Amino acid sequence: MKSIIAALAGAMTLATSFAAVSSEQVNIYSYRQPFLIDPVVKKFTENTGIKVNVVFAKKGLAERLAREGKHTKADIVLTTDISRLMELEDKGLVQAVNSEIINKNIPTHLRDVENEWFALTTRVRNVFASKERITDTNISYEDLAGEAFKGKICTRSGKHPYNVALVASMIAHHGYEGAKTWLSGVKENLARKPQGNDRAQIKAVKEGQCDVALGNSYYFGKMVTDPKQKVAADAVNIVFPNQKNRGAHVNVSGMALTKFSHNKEAAIKLMEYLTGENAQNIYAQVNMEYPVNVAVKPSKLVASWGSFDADMLPMSKIASNRKLALKLLDEVKFDL
């Protein structure tokens, strides 16, 4: 009888323990699309029993967090670029995470100096050059302001976060006035008014509207694997700029713990998981981005583009120039 009672007690303890684990949850506000987040959080839940709820929006999540204040349900915010990470920090909507696991998995230049945000993936701001009309692909960002590219450049809005980050990096390297001279030169070399998304720029090169375009690396990967867009992608070479000097500019997707997280312990577990090899492999394969964890290799397609030197400028330095970059874009009337 005693053994039966002991067995029942053990079973009840186990059930109670599992219930406690399975009742844990993490709530995410995400700028990243569900198709990328879902397979990662599914694996996390399978491994830990912690439920993950995701709210997706293309914009406005920082404003929503500010409006909700301490009543927010969000524990983590996932972003698509450094600008949105800095917006969260500037508005005091996030808190520091001091995790040995995260710090081990993410290089120093890809995380905030105060540990208030962390990169999860990187992507290059590439130049895409016409295979027919551009023979020399040793191109730097600085070259785009030169006479050789007069009337030959396509790009999306200068105020899109991806271009804002690039301009911010140019300010870091050349100072405000130097970056202004460069940006004015690029504007003068535009083949058309900034418009469309990154994929539209590659299509414009294929159609002969311009000879070179700015775009993120993973968009090229998506076009190569899409039968409807592959023809446009096949018409360009993917160029990694500034390989003779500082290296190509990279931007990041990232994460931050909200200031008023109500599930902090579980949220940090998820943040640690997102920097680990399993999650980083999923990011690499599904969205063709570069992992931040050096133990994880890019996908075969991404690796086929070749190795390159990346600009090692700290993301925090780029982020600190974001407001200056926006001011500069207004000064030169880049989008007009």
The low-confidence parts are 1-22
Please give the number of β-strands: 10
CATH class of the largest domain: Alpha Beta
Provide the gyration radius in Å: 22 Å
Fourth-tier CATH superfamily name of the largest domain: Periplasmic binding protein-like II
Instruction: Give the overall average pLDDT.
Output: 92
Q: In percent, how much strand structure appears in the residues?
A: 15-25%
The termini sit apart by 85 Å
**Which geometry do the CA atoms define?**
globular
Instruction: Provide the CATH architecture of the largest domain.
Output: 3-Layer(aba) Sandwich
Helix content: 40-55%
Judged by helices, strands and strand pairing, the structural class is alpha/beta
How is the main sheet built? 10 strands, mixed
- Count of folded domains: 2
In CATH terms, what is the fold-level topology of the largest domain? D-Maltodextrin-Binding Protein, domain 2
Helix-strand topology string: HEHEHEHEHEEHHEHHEEHHEHHH
Put simply, the count of helices is 14
Describe the 3D structure:
- It is a single chain.
- The chain is of the alpha/beta class and 336 residues long.
- The chain has two domains: 2-122 and 252-303, D-Maltodextrin-Binding Protein, domain 2 (3-Layer(aba) Sandwich), CATH 3.40.190; 123-249 and 310-331, D-Maltodextrin-Binding Protein, domain 2 (3-Layer(aba) Sandwich).
- 45% of the residues lie in helices and 16% in strands.
- It contains 14 helices and ten strands.
- It has helices spanning 2-22, 34-48, 61-68, 82-90, 100-105, 161-188, 198-206, 217-224, 230-233, 264-274, 277-287, 300-303, 315-320, 322-331; strands at residues 25-30, 51-56, 76-79, 94-95, 118-130, 153-154, 212-216, 236-239, 250-258, 290-291.
- Strands 1, 2, 3, 4, 5, 6, 7, 8, 9 and 10 form a ten-stranded mixed beta sheet that branches.
- The longest helix has 28 residues, at 161-188.
- The chain is globular, with a radius of gyration of 22 Å.
